Please model this.
Amino acid sequence: MPKWNEQQRRAVETRERNILVSASAGSGKTTVLVGRLMDLVIKDKISVDQILAMTFTEAAANEMKKRLSASLQQEIAQTKDEKILSHLRRQLTLLQDAQISTIHSFCLSILQRYYYVIGCSARQIQNIADNAQMEGMRQNAMEQTLNLHQGDALSALAKLFSMRIEEKKDLCGAIETLAAMAGSSPDPQQWLDQCILPYRCTSLDDLPADIRRGFFSYLKLKQTQISQALAQIKDLFFYDYPEKTAHIEKINLKDRLYQQAEEALNAMDYEGYRRAFITSSAQPMPRTPNKDDLRYARFKDMLVESEDALASILFDSETLLHDLHDSAGVVETLVACTRTYLEVYQKLKQQAQVIDFDDMEHFALQILTANDHAIAKEYQKRFSVIMVDEFQDSNDIQDTIVQLIARSNNVFRVGDVKQSIYGFRHARPQIMQSYIDHPKETDEVIYLSNNYRSSETLVEFNNVFYQKLMNLPSFSSSYRTQDCVSIGGPWQQAVKEPIHFQALLLNELKEQEAFANMNQRQIKALWIASQIKKMHEERKLAWKDFVVLVRSNHNKDDLRTAFDQLHLPYFIEIKHGFYQSSAIELILSALAFLRDPHDDIAFASIALSPLLDFNENQLAQARLKRKDKESFYQYFSSDPDASFQALDAVLKKRNLPIHSLLNELYDLNDYYSTSTSLQEKTNLDLLYQQAVAFEQEQSSDLYAFIDFIDSIKDAQSGEANPISSDDDVIRVMSIHQSKGLQFPIVFLWSNHAQAALDFRSPFLFDPDLGIGIRSMDSNCILRPSIVRIAMQHKKDREQLEEEMRILYVATTRAQNEMYIVDCIRSLELYQQELTTASVFSRCGYTGWFLQAFSQEPSALFHLETVTSSFDTAPLEKIRSEKQAIRHYEKQSSVLSGISASQRKQKQSFPLFDPKASQSTGAMRGTMLHEIAAGLLPPFSDEQIITLFKDKGIEPAANDLRQLHELIIDPQYIRWCAYPHVYRELPYSARIKDELLYGYIDFMAVNEKEIIIIDYKSDHLEDSAAFVDNYAIQLQTYADAVRTMYPDHMIQTWIYSFYLSKFIAVDLK
Model:
């Protein structure tokens, strides 16, 4: 076990409490989590299968299992006691199937086990819809929704988005967005109900508290900005123009008036503040004291901007209420459309027998709350310990699920609010903050306040900087005393390097000939590349010591160009571009040529590539000289050179398996070995892997493979990862990608502006405030409602808070050195104090850094300016040598897939009947299967009726009778009491050269025997007819099950609803 500090020891050893660990970056969070797991297993003798540990990525779950496995193996190696050894070995065996997974995987496991509780089928739970399926169903649901709501109310709603009645794109987008936000709530319907409430209020005092607070918070922000601008103007006159007494008196009068207005605002007296603001804003400001001093103009502009913003919204209370009431109708219509859309979309998924990722959490929640929380109570008994990693990224549904399955004192949560950077995934850091601020009697909060990653200088810098930034007024983010960390060991004192801010002064650099035609992104990328090259050469540092962090992925392309220019080795992961990468496009063109050698576009692509190495003149001459309708291939065939003959030889082998064709193409003219980069080789390897998988799963047909690639290549597919952690290359990644990682030297691509949020849509949505709308008066003039004002301010503030947290993640990745780089026009713009107003002005990371230390310089922060040319000479490029390539040698094999129902004795292909797929008999049979699957002991007729009602079906008397006969059958009742009973059980098994798959309607298993039942609704007159039709199908079920239970005796039965009896089917 590691040597714990006091806080870590408490986190590992405290029992009988709900523990919340607030773990700052680099504090050993994962080590503590695994340490607690080991402590529970070894000291408390808690079995791994009694522990539920949830993470937010599969990679994190696998890493946790890997670390726990290593710790268990280490303990086994050191333990002599046989009793303890037996316990540890059992834990190692159980670990593979332990419930250490993502929360989505855990929710899916609940569905797979208890799907029938909410009327789902096993088939539906097994089928997770892909993006194309979901998009198709969403479009279908939207069309049905708009058709169902056709009328004046929908037209009035649509006009807010577009005056063109046929333009529905933005309206549909609003319905989908509102539906998604409702879906992130534990109770979507209740949340939608609450969205309407503000629009029915009779006074401003009746508004929901969150909306009132948000509205007054916005007013206070603007008032603060006014006060700060006046303070800066007063300081300017006091120090630089004290003789301007008349000017100063005007400024002081305006300041006093605003102080009176602020008193009304603090008392939340809206009308009082409105009147005081009108008086204060009417007080004129003096003229500039000096036309050459631009500071007064800048401060005055800040003042006027805030006054104008307030003047545009401070309507009287009656007008604000009227706007709300006037908007109620369209809000209610939008909510009604959203309800319909959610209902129709859910029905379509049920008909298609699929679920999506949102269903996993919602269905799991429904199961846990059904029947007076009966299943939730089972999980409470099952899990002695519940652990939640990255708790700061939880949403409301996930937290509710954990609360439902938890006991009063067995939850261990670990996270860091300062690292919650996934707002776009509906992460709610305020959930963790609430647990910290309002602990219950059985709760305990533990802070890990030792950093084991970064140098002492970096640790102290982050403490100082984030105390300045995160503790500004108006922000809910905070950097508390407990968040201030200290180093964990003396080794962190070895490096004393401060944080370097490298300001590239754009105007001066653009005067240099080398940079005259570059934009600021290109200059910044070239500077970073040159600095890394210089440090590598002068200090003999490895390339892998460097990482460049970017806020936005589009900056990666500039860095790629700069690194290529200087011949630096690098890896840049981009979430798109695999099928658009040059090597992949070339090989796909070659495959297209092999499919059709007369495809001139494909031929031209490979002719001008290293595969053939023709030049443009050769191709142009061929174009001019060839006969009418003669292809390039036909033209060059008449007088082939060596490279063409090599290509023609590959063409003659086009009936080879796909992977063999790729080998031939990769070898052509030594293309793979000598003409591709490391990234391109890895992309080609991944294409090869796709081809092998396609052959094994589908076919070896070239045409089918090309069609398959064409169908998926427009999807977002990132290039393959060609490196491991040991490869000596520079990494470039987004800040989000860097979370959880660390690097000796970090370059941060800073920004001096942040894009304002887009508030152009007539509707805004928020999980706390609901729906915000812009009201339209009788003159078609739009103005924001009070709900929207509160919402815009909240979104603005929350987005800036998340940017603070993203920056915190970036500045806590470095172990030794940190370099922050930006191109700016002038340092003078940043010679002011860091304030709430400046943050809301969206001055970017650069503004935050420079303003934080402009008034209080620190030895921790070193500002450097770059005004002249710098070295951009490239490294000497090393050419790839020809290498022998080992080819894939495994023989391909193709399985034929077949379901049990396809293995009937009589195989025929009837004439197509368009009505057959919708026949009443087939639909009734499906319905009877689903009802039978939902029946659970103790059986009753009331249970049958309830299942029909849940499906919205009025049962026929005959249906009720036939199902009643099933549930009173003594054999069936006895089989249902077996230890393991499965309904609609999915299976797959390989028998000889066939892959058998399908669903078994009912299977019961005890220690010795297995009962398989297949429900049939056919109208056959005797038992023999059923056996004759379905014996092979039942035999197939038995063959598949026997591969899993070779020692059990297997019985197969048909239950005929028509005959109301069980029919035995003898097995071979």
